[in-house]
User: Fold these one by one.
Assistant:
Number 1:
Amino acid sequence: MGAISGAGSVNPGQSPGILTATSVDLSSGLDFNFEFTQFTPDYGAPTASGNDVLHLTDSTPFLGNFSGSNTVNVYLNVAEDPIPDDTYLGGFFSEVDPAEVSIAFSEAVFNYYLADANGPVAYDGTNYRAYDGEFTFHPGWAAQSAQFAGSAQAIDGFSLELTTVPEPQSSAFLLGVAAGLLVLLRRRRARSP
């Protein structure tokens, strides 16, 4: 495809798959829906990539910056619930380093969903529920070398990377427990003859 613009939603692939376009114009409030079924997409399988990918080929892949009017919905249809430091790749793939053009996700609205047969949200024939687990997802960019179907060689680029990190209150709780254990150990050592 050429450039994508407007105020609708972009749904790459065929549950899941890869859509190639030159660029996306974020200024009119484009939204994005990405289905992830594994940690890393199979870039060479455009209709069965495992994770949805919007492959952007232009030297200016993003027109404008992500804002509160851009929603990115991530539908996790994975075998197990997320655990700490899980990393999921997919969604966007840019052949230009987004950091060089100051593209950041800080203002975008990210929603995360987990597959659930009884979930109230339906997407592409699967029911989901909003993720309400003990981790948050940190979106960023990861350098990737991807061999896309029809490409003679691997393309170096940058993929959306979602990493699970503990909720701030969970981290504070764990630090509190660790501090308490250290105090107890010190008291025991102080009492030992």
Number 2:
Amino acid sequence: MLLVLIVSAISAALSVWYLPDFIHLAFIAAVFLIAAAEALDWGLGALITPARPRAVLGGVLAGGLLLALRLQLQRNAALLRRQFPYPHDTAFGRIDFPVRWAPVLIDRTRQLLSETTSHELWAYPNTSEPYLTTGGRNPTPFQFFYSRVSPPEHTEQVLAILKQRQVPYIMCQSFFLRARDPVVQAILTDYESVSMPELKGLGFRNLSLYRRKDIQRADTGAPPP
């Protein structure tokens, strides 16, 4: 059992080595909590032979650990309130946002989607948050898609879906857009950025909303191409 625990801990550490941030470490924390409890029990057994004093000392240490964890959780809660000071109701429920522009973008997108019959919104690349916060329907079968890492046949399938279904809106992460990306080329050909004056002065944003050009022409009364 000890060997299984050691191998599991090593494997868990290696599995998040590519991005050991807070979230990934939380995924594997349970394995190391078990290892810490095992090590603590072994240490007390080595230092204190009688069972009763060892049990008392173990209880004291456990109580101290719980108190320390409670204080840390209070500090974490206060930090999160400072980091995410903008609560807002979304299609997914109440979410606390770190920036002011996010709720504005979400509300505007929800309004535009409500004016369509399909309520379809495609988020690109590799982001699924807009589906939850706006209630938009993903027209593709992929919850994670990025043409630079996805198979070429998936890229062809996505491009075909965008053209056949005439998906009205696309939300893009500007950080990941590349000029040679065939999906980006298709977006720039068939879509245009949605103007949102209400976002002015709210800081830099990494999400932008695009609308099919023929929809824009319909709004302005101009004939489609």
